[in-house]
């Protein structure tokens, strides 16, 4: 069995994933924030003075958020934390809930913007996030022994684009079900593009079908097994393409680092 760890409540539970055949493909299904009260929209101000959706994240504690390190880089240059905000408590990336100033961005010490290796980060908010039961809560995290199985169904959520032909991010949170793709098949496919799929990555999508999957703007958003965070979306070639599944960072190998970074002074 795989344990779930919640940093705020520190509880343990067993997890397993189920598929919902009624899920529509493509852009996924619109969901309320009460279904995923830990979901966080991360907004960036590129210098225009306006904060717009860029990535997703998961609340870890009252002042820590989990995301992908690649969200906070342009090329090899890291972004200043002051350029970022976190919106919690709302299914809408552009309104509602509460916005928090990001005071610190800590990418994994071995993150590589070039290879996307170790693509995980912990953000700290300047002020404590106000928890509201059922609306703003900490996410559950799987334990260090968690493993994926080929063809396993997992949930993906986010505010990313709904299709390859519409690159604009969804205003409202969406959810879909995708599947674990065999690591060797995924590695062979991405080798066509000169990209190496590392062991701490997991490939997710609808192999050779596409349509349903992770897209631009979903980066940093969690993948879930029965409500617990099991990984973080890193990147994908295109948007929900059948040939190239989404590349995600497995959480379990980084759990100790995530916990220590999120709870550090």
Automatic annotation (TrEMBL):
GO terms for molecular function: serine-type endopeptidase activity. InterPro entries: Peptidase_S1, Peptidase_S1_PA, Peptidase_S1_PA_chymotrypsin, Peptidase_S1A, Trypsin_dom. GO terms for biological process: proteolysis. Keywords: Disulfide bond, Hydrolase, Protease, Serine protease, Signal. The keyword Flavoprotein does not apply. Residues 25-263 form the Peptidase S1 domain. Residues 1-17 form the signal peptide. The keyword Cell membrane does not apply. Pfam families: Trypsin. Belongs to the peptidase S1 family. This is Peptidase S1 domain-containing protein. The lineage of its organism: Eukaryota, Metazoa, Ecdysozoa, Arthropoda, Hexapoda.
């Amino acid at each position: 069995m795989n344990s779930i760890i919640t940093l705020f409540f520190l509880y343990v539970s067993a997890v397993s994933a189920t598929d919902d055949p009624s899920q529509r493909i493509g852009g996924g299904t619109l969901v309320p924030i009460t279904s995923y009260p830990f979901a966080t929209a991360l907004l960036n101000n590129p210098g225009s003075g306006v904060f717009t959706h860029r990535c997703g994240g998961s609340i870890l504690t009252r002042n820590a958020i989990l995301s992908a390190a690649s969200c906070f880089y342009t090329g090899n240059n890291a972004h200043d934390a002051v350029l970022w905000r976190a919106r919690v408590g709302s299914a809408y990336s552009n309104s509602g809930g509460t916005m928090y100033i990001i005071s610190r961005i800590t990418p994994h010490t071995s993150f590589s913007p070039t290879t996307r290796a170790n693509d995980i980060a912990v953000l700290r908010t300047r002020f404590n996030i106000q928890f509201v039961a059922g609306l703003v809560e900490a996410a559950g995290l799987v334990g260090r022994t968690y493993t994926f199985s080929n063809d396993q169904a997992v949930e993906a959520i986010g505010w990313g684009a709904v299709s390859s032909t519409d690159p604009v991010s969804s205003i409202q949170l969406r959810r879909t079900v995708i599947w674990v793709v065999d690591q060797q098949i995924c590695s062979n496919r991405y080798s066509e593009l000169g990209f190496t799929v590392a062991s701490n990555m997991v490939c997710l999508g609808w192999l050779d079908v596409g349509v349903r999957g992770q897209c631009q703007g979903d980066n940093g958003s969690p993948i879930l097994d029965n409500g617990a965070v099991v990984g973080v979306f890193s990147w994908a070639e295109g948007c929900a393409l059948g040939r190239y599944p989404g590349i995600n960072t497995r959480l379990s190998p980084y759990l100790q680092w995530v916990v220590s970074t999120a709870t550090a002074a």
